[in-house]
Write a structure and sequence with these properties.
Elements lengths: L16 H21 L3 H24 L5 H24 L5 H23 L9 H19 L4 H40 L2
Helix pairs in contact: 1-2, 1-3, 2-5, 3-4, 3-5, 4-6, 5-6
């Protein structure tokens, strides 16, 4: 059995429980997409809930058992972004949400991707995920099942729509707030590295 790394240390290990969980989450993205686009909402909701629970679980295991790895730091946010993107496109395609919501969230990720060359030029990889970014992702992931349930008739659908949009708007706000924090961090790195 592999030795656990000391608390807070990021290792180069590949075969860790959190990495396996993140890999399974990634493999479930196309399954979720097919279910969502073919309007099999109950199985799609189950996959989305499993993805959300395992997202929380892999982070908990990584911290508690000191299995934080560089691969995990890439896999986990990649899975989050893919679920957000596939869900948004599916919900917009089915007219549960407007297309502007997709554009606002995708624009944020495009902005962050544009920062990566500047970070690499100065010897940095992707910045650690900020708490605001995690909270925004959590709010968005929480909003999607609710927005999907908004299609139910009567009070359950109305409540799902209200709480779903509340979570979605908070998620977008936190998502963009985190993006501005990343922009500020990159600007500071560039300024401090200037000759």
């Amino acid at each position: 059995m592999e030795q656990a790394s000391p608390a807070g240390e990021v290792t180069e290990r590949v075969w860790t429980v959190p990495n396996v969980i993140s890999a399974v989450r990634l493999l479930l993205v196309p399954v979720f997409g097919v279910l969502l686009f073919t309007e099999r909402d109950v199985p799609a909701l189950v996959v989305l809930v499993v993805a959300g629970v395992t997202d929380w679980l892999d982070g908990l295991i990584a911290r508690h058992f000191h299995q934080t790895s560089r691969l995990g730091q890439l896999l986990d946010p990649a899975a989050d972004r893919l679920y957000i993107f596939v869900t948004l496109v599916g919900l917009a395609w089915r007219e549960f949400v407007p297309w502007w919501l997709v554009l606002v969230i995708v624009a944020r990720d495009v902005l962050l991707a544009c920062l990566l060359p500047a970070l690499r030029r100065h010897g940095y990889g992707p910045l650690p995920v900020h708490l605001a970014g995690k909270a925004g992702t959590f709010a968005l992931m929480y909003s999607f099942p609710l927005l999907l349930l908004a299609g139910l008739p009567g009070t359950p659908g109305d409540l799902a729509w209200t709480f779903g949009w509340a979570c979605a708007l908070w998620g977008v706000g936190l998502y963009w707030f985190a993006a501005l924090l990343y922009v500020e961090q990159v600007a500071r790195i560039v300024r401090e590295s200037a000759p």
